[in-house]
Amino acid sequence: MGTCQSQITNGCCSDNVKLKESSYMARKGGASAHKSWALPFNYKLEEVFELKEKQKQLFEKHPPRNHDPAPGTMHQFVLIRIFKDSYLYCGEVSEGNRVGPAFCQNFETKDLFDMVFAENHPQPNVKIYFANGNYYEGTFDGQGMLNGTLEIDEEESKYTGDFKNNLPHGIGEKVFRDGTTLKGRWDMGQFCRELSKDRTRISSIA
Predict the structure, then answer these.
(1) Which of 149, 154, 115, 155 lies closest to 135 in space, CA to CA?
(2) 38 versus 169: which is more confidently predicted?
(3) Residue closest to 122 by CA, chosen among 109, 105, 104
(4) SS3 assignment, position 14
(5) How far is Cα 20 from Cα 38, in angstroms, rounded to an integer?
(6) CA distance linking residue 126 with residue 59, whole number of Å
(7) Is the pTM of this model over 0.85?
(8) Percentage, residues of the chain above pLDDT 90
(9) Do residues 25 and 18 touch, judged by C-beta distance below 8 A?
(10) Residues β-bridged to residue 182
(11) Contact by Cβ (8 Å): 69, 92
């Protein structure tokens, strides 16, 4: 679980020491955090990131994308700034640009993002493995979740639809463990009213 491959040819023992040192420094946010490190072959996510037990369990239920490096690329570990926050980046680098699939962990919350980059820019479709055991798959921008499915660990419920400020807002459907369903319009996390029978499509609204 959570094993990636990186193109590096140094000795295995030396690489593992470098990985532990770089991971520790980046997690602590020290002066060396702005340095980048090439990751050793077959590194494991739990060696790079601080993962909660619930996040590890989510990997079993919702496998991440294939993160093996594409030809001509390598995997890099570095502290970066995206979405107005600091993230630990672990993913492909080609000609100095972050490209392709990558893991990014929020430096403060420890939420882990499985995402794709294009020329250093994060793309909107993400998988988020929250530290509290929640899981989201859908679109995301600097303001938060936009449209997708959020599984809420504490409630054992699943919401699919629109979001605003990371709360259900717009048209959406929430299904609870006992099969109870709330489908209709939501306002900042609160269910407002059911949809009429001729409006059953889940679609984005302002």
Answers:
(1) 149
(2) 169
(3) 104
(4) helix
(5) 12
(6) 14
(7) no
(8) 48
(9) no
(10) 174
(11) yes
φ, ψ for residue 24 (rounded to 5)? -65, -45
Nearest to 189 by CA among 177, 172, 206: 172
Between 176 and 36, residue with greater pLDDT = 176
What digits encode the pLDDT tens for the residues 188-200? 999 998 876 544 4
- The whole-angstrom separation of Cα 201 and Cα 206 is 16
Helices and strands (H, E) in the chain, number of each type: 3, 13
Alpha carbon 63 to its chain centroid, in Å, reads 12
CA distance 101 to 118: 9
The predicted-structure confidence for 134-143, as pLDDT tens digits, reads as follows 999 999 987 8
Residue with tokens 């491959």: 5
Distance between CA atoms of residues 102 and 167, nearest Å: 25
As given in the structure block, the two tokens for residue 71 are 């030809």
Q: What is the DSSP letter of 143?
A: T
What is the structure's pLDDT at 150?
A: 97
Single-letter residue type at 46:
E
Classified as helix, coil or strand, 33 is helix
Residue that has been written with the tokens 């609160």 in this structure: 190
User: Which tokens go with 4?
Assistant: 């990636």
